[in-house]
Specification:
Four copies of one chain form a homotetramer. With 334 residues, chain A is an alpha/beta fold. The first copy, chain A, folds into two domains: 5-120, NAD(P)-binding Rossmann-like Domain (Rossmann fold, 3-Layer(aba) Sandwich); 144-308, Dihydrodipicolinate Reductase, domain 2, CATH 3.30.360.10. The first copy, chain A, contains nine helices and twelve strands.
Chain lengths: 334, 334, 334, 334
């Protein structure tokens, strides 16, 4: 055990936290030291011989790294303490994803609890692997941003999108994305046999995060039209993306562009032409899958899928952790 | 409208209450005057032009009959007021199902709120239609009791069961049976892909109600072994019943016994030999369906199904209401 | 019984046919005389005392009207015989939906079996009620076209769409839309927990039908980008529509436009602002529901839902039948 | 790679075969050499770089062991060839589970294709680990038998059951147990929202297999009453077992009996008192879980669960393979 990295998970009983625990419990270079839970303190932690402890009882001096699967506003203070204690930290909450306190205040309707921490590297290795390597603190992206941004990345990076033309994202998420706390909209009877949009247009909080990263790569991109839907499955997320290309690019060439871009990416799979990405391609894996449909010369349809709790949350957090620790990037993830 | 019976529904936003409202809104002899809801007061009442009102604002002087789809302990006081006001009442809660205050105290761990109301006719028309006709106050049975008792009735009434031999009921219910209030065990993610027993053996509250009615018909019947399970569907309930017959009866003759017993029952269907009762036979209908499997000479297996919100709750309540009001028994139910 | 219209259903055991039978069995002005099925001949017809008969045994001289819920190419010959026999006919297949044999040949890769029948009134009462009244033969629209066209109608009719700008439709259908014949893609295990696009872009056969009707109303409309998905529910269909308005129209005004347009339509409900249309609004009803989201001044998002077997198939077919027969349009449908 | 055991899978595209491939692809001591499929020959084999080959193209001389996930009657001939070729073989079909050709003929209504192979060790390690070690050919049990027999084993082995008293098993299986070939009863729309018994009483083929093993351990056991049901989930199986104990045993003592019996079993978990075994305990794992409810002194209720494709099929087959090969029993299974 002496060679293993000692790790703690805050918020280990929520759905993202459970998957973080499951991945870390099987990770060959990790020793899981604690997992916290306010609701389930005292209960056994699955896949381990631990029991959940209250957040306040977690001792940062016993670990080298922590994962924060906490609600927003609750997460930043722990991140600040981890940084002060010299403990590496992957934050899965929204607290550190937006680069400025102003942007956070706009989308989360609350003053940022620790503005001195911003900005923090955005934990999407396919976008900014070099920033993540060796970082002490990482903001792991949300599930919708990860899935959507991976679906757009080759176009954004290479300037294929028609300037000012809207990027339309019709997204669908399994119910675990709504969290473990029982609410009327996650009651089995309400979800079963149903399919429903929520926060459509430009009001979902992830719009701010997605557009922030879009504009870094392509400042001329059009506005994001984003409609998330609740899908009656437990896990899995699809972003169905509709874009318009510049005149000098042809949708039929996008397949090669994507294959080239992601050729060496171990956790992003571009499907062959005519195959369609589905949830089954990714559920319970740490991968994204992408398929492309040239609709006409100028119009391209992209389907991007992840497991919202894996590549959309905890799997990606561990991918960042591996990079931060100098481990092979996919350790524990294949 | 002048000929219609004016009716109110207390607790009209819960799952049983919603179905009561839906049936009554289409009932040709009913005018729905109000539906109450503590949680959803002000919201539109589906299938009507009404809005939910708080319980306290319901005016008993405006109706001739009420349905009480309230939690236990909350229901009996309203039943008492309805009786005092001369308003006919079908109570769907557990408050009036057990014949004595002592039995209620045993199973519900609480003193009975209105012992002076007991006993009340048990609203299972196939058992005691004559008591229901003309009654002012009826205790509508629970979903497990209705389904189980209809599956046993011909055997109990005709003394076919081996005295002292246990009656084994392996029961499965859709999630609406657990109520509309969000709880951890009804969260979509917890139920999806799962199947789980709860309160097995002899501890579920419906055991008291089922045995009370069993022993009225067959005092020598053995004890009830009852295991309910949560089924990952929204509605539908199955009681899988295993019994031992007296030596002088043969399981192969049970088919004729059941067909004869239920021959004139409009809302109980005995399936032909070899066909199996399934949820699809009854979901969104007000009927029960029963199938029989002679396992060996002495052992009989019975499958009994209902929609837990219809024949297992609101459909049966309206069936009782029709009898109480002198209307044709199946009005609004076919 | 003497006043009732005698009706037959061809293909009464498929999913659309089953719903047609169910609606007609409860229709106060209809006597169902026969229902045909090649696979289930001899089995009881649900909701009736009939048994399915082979197609060849159906006698057109015994009925005044027929519904054809047959596969394409099998349907047109029966329609031709019905016309010859003076029997009114609602065809639910694709055979008569496209106005010309050339268009049929393009989308169905087969010569039209009865070109002399074309064109036939398209059975979408909200579009062309007057053509349907008194017609002898009607082509009932498909589920995707109905849902999509109702979602676009007020914009098309009033010329609000930016000429040449694409109409993006991300559509989702319950599995019954794929028919009752067992196929690998409708196996429970393949669908469960999955969500998958199929025939994306401009290749699904309904594209031809939708664009035909779009261009009748707005010849300047842009091309249709249409991605259907298989949704893991049994019934229900959503078209999520993204459009760009002309400069002189504002998305915020669309709510009033839709409410005005559909004000007197008994089977189309425009939801209030901020409410979102979901499958639960329409499943097992004969209605469509529509909600609107102004994304920005020029971009409008529309959610349109139907039950694919009701307003998307058999409910609408009966709506047409009522018009053809001079009955109140919603008879048997509320 | 030189140290790895070369393995082939026949029938690798069915549901049991897929799971065998998945487990073996991650097994540290296995090199998967081929996977056969009649239907999907040419398609990629998930989790590997192989493509499915037709059964006839599989070369037994290239492997040291094979798994047969073939239909009954198709499997025994391959087992015979494997034996002749000196290749170790785990047969997942029913062909070799019954000890005599007569018993096979009774339950499968067909002469046994290779009676000279019988009897073969029954691949349930918790029952007969010693027979499996070093064997060349093993009959892996079915899903219902595994789950039921593990639930009964401590009682049978220690003679706790009342002689002649029936063993009642109300069983529920996910749909993958019905195989991958599309059939009407596995169509998504037929299963969704439904729950249905099939082959109830004593007619399901697994009755013969279960009773064979019961009587080996307890010749005085009563007859098996066995009702399987189709559960609307993709995987997971529960046997709900109801038994009567001899007078000198008390149901309250069963907990200790089970804990002692399974104390050293790595793949059977006895839950603590009051906890109930559910599908979530075992789905996608290679374990069984068991919970006990003392109903009264003499009556005991047992809930036993497995993943029907894992401990109920391929996981257990690999467990047997590990024993046959002298590997640690749980290699690749935790």
């Amino acid at each position: 055990m002496t060679d293993k990295i000692k790790v703690g998970v805050y918020g280990g009983s929520g759905y993202a936290g459970q998957d973080a625990v499951e991945i870390l419990a099987h990770h060959p270079n990790v020793e899981l030291v604690f997992a916290t839970s306010s609701t389930y303190a005292g209960d056994p932690v699955p896949f381990t011989s631990l029991r959940y402890i209250p957040h306040a009882e977690a001792d940062l001096s016993t670990v080298q790294a922590v994962f924060l699967a906490l609600p927003h506003l609750a997460s930043a203070p722990v991140a600040a303490r981890a940084r002060a204690a010299g403990v590496k930290c992957v934050d899965l909450s929204a607290d550190l994803r937006l680069d400025t306190p102003e942007r956070f205040a706009k989308w989360y309707a609350h003053e940022h609890p620790h503005p001195e921490l911003l900005p923090v590297p955005y934990g999407l290795p396919e976008f900014n692997r070099d920033q993540i390597k060796g970082a002490d603190l990482i903001a792991a992206p949300g599930c919708y941003p990860t899935t959507t941004l991976l679906g757009l990345y080759p176009l954004l990076k290479n300037g294929w999108l028609l300037p000012g033309s809207p990027i339309i994202v019709d997204a669908k998420s399994g119910v675990s994305g709504a969290g473990r706390e029982p609410k009327p909209n996650t009651h089995f009877v309400e979800v079963y046999g149903n399919f429903s949009p929520y926060n459509p247009g430009r009001v979902h909080r992830h719009v701010g995060e997605i557009e922030q990263e879009i504009f870094k790569l392509d400042p001329q991109a059009g506005l994001l039209i984003f409609t998330p839907h609740l899908l009656p499955v437990d896990r899995g997320l699809m972003s169905s993306i509709y874009v318009t290309l510049k005149d000098n690019y042809r949708s039929a060439d996008a397949q090669a562009l994507y294959q080239d871009t992601y050729h060496d990416e171990p956790l992003v799979k571009v499907l062959p032409p005519k195959q369609q990405a589905t949830l089954k391609h990714v559920v319970k894996t740490n991968r994204a899958a992408i398929s492309l449909t040239p609709v006409s010369d100028r119009y391209l349809h992209i389907t991007s899928v992840t497991d919202n709790l894996r590549k959309g949350a905890s799997g990606q957090a561990v991918q960042c952790f591996n990079l931060m620790m100098g481990l092979p990037e996919t350790t524990g993830l294949l």
